[in-house]
Amino acid sequence: MSQVPTEYYLILSAIIFVIGALGVLMRRNALIIFMCVEMMLNAVNLSLIALAREFGQLTGQIVVFFVMAVAAAEVAVGLAILIAYVRHRDTIDIDEINLLRG
Questions:
Q1: Highest mean pLDDT among 14-18, 38-42, 97-101
Q2: Where are the alpha helices (DSSP H) in 6-58?
């Protein structure tokens, strides 16, 4: 049984990260931006797992659990803020968010 080379996982991780970064930079919908940030975090997780498998250490896999916990907290807090804002202004367009201006 042949193994998939680690470089393939790293290339896939880079592609997913670039797609997520472009989504964050180009989109105006806050929900899509949250999903793109999650894609970027999952790309990092994929590369950590691939490198942990390559070097035979568990350190990368342990870090992935911490990244997943931070991602879950980020989604919970971010969606709570977004829901509060939508109830206040009835829009999720990033250009319309200017709470600091008054």
A1: 14-18
A2: 6-26, 30-55
> Sign of dihedral through CA atoms 93, 32, 64, 4?
negative
- What confidence tier does 101 reach under pLDDT thresholds 50, 70, 90? low
The pLDDT of residue 100 is above 60: no
Contacts (Cβ under 8 Å, ≥6 apart) of 21? 36, 40
Sign of CA dihedral 86, 92, 94, 95: negative
- Global pTM value: 0.82
Instruction: Check residue 56 and report its DSSP letter.
Output: T
Among residues 97, 42, 27, the alpha carbon closest in space to that of 74 is found at: 42
End-to-end Cα distance, the chain: 63
Domains, the chain:
6-101 (1.10.287.3510)
Q: Give the single-character DSSP code of 29.
A: B
3-state secondary structure of 5: coil
